[in-house]
Amino acid sequence: MVAAAFATFAISSALMHAYAVFLVAFLEEFRWSRAETSLAYAISQLVSGVSSPLVGVAVDRLGPRRLILLGGIFLAVGLLGSAYATALWHVVILYGLVMTLGANCLGLVVFVPLLSQRFVRRRGLAMSIVQSANGFGRAASAPLAQLLISSIGWRRAYLTQAALMAVVALPLAGFFRSAGPNSGPAAATPASPPDAGASTPTPARTPGWTLGEAMRTSHFWLLFSVYLCTGLGSFLVALHQLAFAVDVGFEKLYAASVLGVGSFLSIAGTILTGTISDHIGREPAAILAYGVSIVGVGFALFISSPRHGWLLWLHACGFGLTWGARGPAITAKTADLFPGGNLGAILGVITIGTGIGSAVGSWAAGFIFDVSGSYRLAFVLSIVAYLGGCAAFWALRRLPRRVPGQ
Description:
This protein is an all-alpha fold. Helix content is about 75%, strand content about 0%. Mean pLDDT is about 85; it is low at about 185-205.
């Protein structure tokens, strides 16, 4: 089940993260501004967040197999249509709406409830393995998409991706044939807490949380803030990394390869963070990941020419190592705090924070460049947002309490 979830999430992540490479191709062909070219990605992140509650409710009631099949169809259609895009609004609709809805049906909101029911003592490890697929997909997408575009052009590259998605959609859905709604061991909470040292034990046989109960707690909104700050901090940098490197003077395929290698490190970083969160607690693990991201973004502030290739490597490795690394700790924390059969819906609503932060960050970075001619301010704001995420996550150390009568 974990392997199937990893493969499914990796493919959808690779297809969606490839937009950072297509962004450079769009800039060259259509001469759009950075803010305009970022618009489709920003809307994608917003749609991802807003649609997450619907996907969460759907997976709680329908199970993952049907959603994965539907998502695969949406992705294939969106990729096919993108090959024939001639205007900005075409890209906005096809990538920002159609492909995003498809990817959301192949994403964490679908897999977290399933995994949280089947894993308790190693919940962080299980989620980190699946979460690392995001980094794997992102790492593979940059060099492979750039190679495709350089070889056959961006339109044929989209057609190739559409064909791939059409071929794999049905087999991916087939992996989850036995995973129905709320499948696995009881959605009940564990009879024993996570390993000693973890900061978020869950009481035995506590009734599952409803969405309304969760929203009445400060913990719900602190988690929302964590998702918001993390999305903002990450996407003030991530979407524009390749464009930034090319602007500085690095060759496109070389820069894509460096950033891809850095992203591959996120596989180890994500699994390590999720694993240690089972032992030292979610908060210290997440804050460690935030710290490494901040250092990685800081290196980018000092890159000003192709002579700074070593700084590009340090930036790519620092930022890449912790790309998504906070995810297992955050999602596991959500499952720790609000266990039960409504986890998909709860996680879906909280994920709106990620959508808002990611949308604002990806568009704002482009706008900042259009106004100032530099990404420097965007990178500084990324560090500030990460610090905000640290503060909000640290405030989640204690379990929420149900107020009598709620």
